[in-house]
Amino acid sequence: MYGRHFSGESAMSEEIERIVLDFTQMKAFAQDPFIFSEGDGIWLTDVDGKRYIDGLSGVFVNSLGYRNRAMIEAITAQLEKLHFAPPLHGTTPVALDLVKALLAFAPPGMGAVKLLSGGSEATEAAMKMARQFHKQSGHPRKYKIIARYGGYHGATMGALSASGGWERKSVFEPLVAGFLHVHPPDCYRCPFDKVYPSCQITCAKLIERTIEAEDPETVAAVIMEPISISSAGFVVPPREFFSILRETCNRHNVLLIFDEIITGFGRLGANFGADYYGVVPDLLCCGKGMSGGYAPLAAVIIAQHVWQAFLGEPSERVEFHHGHTYGGNPVACAAGLAALRQIQERGLVENAKVQGAHLRKRLDAMAKQFDFVGEARGAGLLQGLAFDTKRFAGASLPPGKQVERAAKARGLLLRTGNDFATFSPPLIVTRDDVDLMCDVLVESLKEVEQGMRVRA
User: What's this model's pTM, rounded to 2 decimal places?
Assistant: First the structure.
């Protein structure tokens, strides 16, 4: 059965009907299934032999490309030694090596690492740690978490409660208590009808007013993505936003959590989004590109001053009361260590910065060429275009989905929402790769533009 492609009359086969994909209506998927068989470098191949440029790194994960020999060899070597160790009893040398490497790669002031196996686990752990930290630091009433509308922090109940897009959470409501949301720092569609920079960064200042209105002694943490990308939108905060937020959190003894599941490990042309914005959080959640997609791996990197609250005698019970079966798995740690080594030895953070600068030039040119493109935005190798949705009133599909469909037909996979399309290719891309992706995107935009003229 392996390698079969289900299409046409056989689309409703038993195999397709029984698999449940993420956020996907399986009835529609079964009518035209998309099944990958192999990958190499930045390319994916489906079971019919058609090749696609992976312009979104799988889902912001495949930072080192497919069939990476160094990754495969590191994982194989670890499998030959030890594939699993009892997490309730101890750890492994490879896990300790990864912790050391992560702390050296992380922003200054970080003192410990909680290893996990997925992004939702990391954000859940960080928010739980924030609550426990305050209870053990003399502020037991601090429990509320402030996040922003449009943000996405994971699919588990606590992470989903922090997320701000109704599209993925409304069917599960009511969710976990104690989560508040503020409007996003979106300069393209400012929720306050202001214009940057004369706005004086109202979006950041209102977070302090929210903390004060809730009573600072009840607010444990603020969780934010350095750059937010989800079905609810693609938001790139202005430079000053996080420095203002950092000062606000300091004033009110509120922990600042960065959700860097997407933006970490060179994606923005800096080690982390924290480095890109020049702001150090108290808790930094990371995952996805952490292992290059070769094993499930995530972590919470913990500031030393936070970690101190969890150190004591066993009788005090101040240890972090949280764990997962696959956290610190030796095979996953070997993948993470090998990925981090490649990122540093191959200069992939700098490559993301250099190729990102070239990508921005191409995207800026597209924004000028096509009237329905509002602007280019992003950083490093997480950049894209925002679309004017008003120009598509009455269309059967919003502009982002039209672009996605046109690009896919030409062999390019993108991350899109209703009003945006973004690139997040593997960090190994070359200038020629970027040009090829952009050339395909231009042709796709022309197709969408032609469709607008036909409808008019």
Answer: 0.95
